[in-house]
Predict the structure.
Amino acid sequence: MHKELNRRFARGAVAVIGLGVLAASVLAAVVAAGGGRSLPADVQAVRGQLAHYNSVDNALADGYVPVSPCESSPAGAMGIHYAKMSLFGPGIDPEHPEVLLYVPRKDGSLDFVAAEYFQVDADQNLETNDDKPSIFGQTFDGPMLGHNPQMPIHYDLHVWLYRHNPAGLFAAWNPRVHCPGS
């Protein structure tokens, strides 16, 4: 009887350990896929479609070029902006963001963290917003002045696809993102 209890205990312990390993595996897969957060289905779909840009070489091959240093502020950072000029114009296509955001790693390689959608304000008037775009159920920020003298008044929307942003999925700055030296 004592041996039977030991066998039952051993089988039970193995089953509990097996369930624990399975649960840990599922949790690791969830964290790897979405940073431990639940993304809306339309954002999750775009995240999957843009996954090939995890390699900046693929972004460069598709015509994206670096257009800024690593941008940071007291609110956090955005990263380095890689823009594809042929995408700038009327209309927004979630599968083809105008800008991709990368953050330098310690080894100098780049980590794809977010997409930025950008639309020029049609009338270049900060007082009107009748052409304000929206995607993913979110209206864009703006209209806003350009960030440099060559940039027009515009609308933009950041989507943190690959780096969790505690300020929000669509916030401009991410307090968990840091540029070298900041």
Remarks:
- The chain has a mean pLDDT of 84.
- The first strand starts at residue 65 and ends at 66.
- Residues 41-159 form one domain.
